């Protein structure tokens, strides 16, 4: 049975094992991240030797619902929420429609270090 690891990816690190600076630099042969979190996010990443599991989680044809908690600098607008629920166009194509709801900050959520950076020109948040 292939080993699988749960990894809490820190802010500022890319979910890849080679290339640019600040990547997952592990010298573990044949292990892969399932899915990805952007450099500006942090949270759970599954690392596995199991190619079928990695493919099943990462490939969009095997749709897997995922839950994200997103902290924003101010209140998110209804317009932004509506855009997310319709799907937004990114460089690599349109996203699937999202289920979105606003929540209060959970008690278990750790402080972000560094704190949130304001990103300008995010089309669906304008």
Highlighted features:
two-stranded antiparallel ribbon; alpha+beta; 15% strand; single chain; Alpha-Beta Plaits; 2 helices; three-stranded antiparallel sheet; 13% helix; globular; 126 residues; 2 domains
Describe the structure in your own words.
With 126 residues, the protein is of the alpha+beta class. The strands form 2 sheets. Strands 1-3-2 form a 3-stranded antiparallel beta sheet. A two-stranded antiparallel sheet has the order 4-5. The longest helix has 9 residues, at 78-86. It has 2 domains: 4-62, 2-Layer Sandwich (Alpha-Beta Plaits), CATH 3.30.70.580; 67-126, Alpha-L RNA-binding motif (Alpha-Beta Plaits, 2-Layer Sandwich), CATH 3.30.70.1560. The model has no long low-confidence stretch (mean pLDDT 77). It is 13% helix and 15% strand.
Brief characterization of the structure:
By secondary structure, the chain is of the alpha+beta class.
The CATH architecture of the largest domain can be named as: 2-Layer Sandwich
| C-alpha termini separation | 47 Å
The quaternary state of the protein chains shown equals: single chain
Overall radius of gyration: 16 Å
Poorly predicted segments: none
Mean pLDDT: 77
Structural class: alpha+beta
Helix tally equals: 2
Helix content: 10-25%
Largest sheet: 3 strands, antiparallel
Strand content range: 15-25%
CATH superfamily of the largest domain: Alpha-L RNA-binding motif
Q: How many separate domains make up the residues? A: 2
Q: Would you state the CATH class of the largest domain?
A: Alpha Beta
Number of strands: 5
As laid out across the biggest beta sheet, the strand order is: 1-3-2
Name the overall outline: globular
SSE series: EEEHHEE
């Amino acid at each position: 049975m292939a080993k699988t690891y749960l990894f809490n990816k820190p802010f500022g690190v890319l979910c890849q094992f080679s290339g640019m600076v600040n990547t997952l630099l592990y010298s573990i042969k044949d292990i892969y991240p399932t899915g990805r979190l952007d450099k500006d996010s942090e949270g759970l990443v599954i690392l596995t030797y199991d190619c079928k599991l990695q493919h099943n989680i990462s490939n969009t044809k095997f749709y897997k619902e995922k839950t994200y908690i997103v902290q924003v600098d101010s209140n998110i607008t209804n317009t932004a929420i509506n855009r997310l629920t319709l799907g937004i166009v990114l460089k690599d194509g349109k996203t699937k429609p999202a289920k979105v709801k606003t929540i209060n900050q959970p008690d278990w959520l750790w402080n972000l270090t560094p704190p949130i950076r304001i990103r300008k020109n995010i089309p669906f948040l304008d």
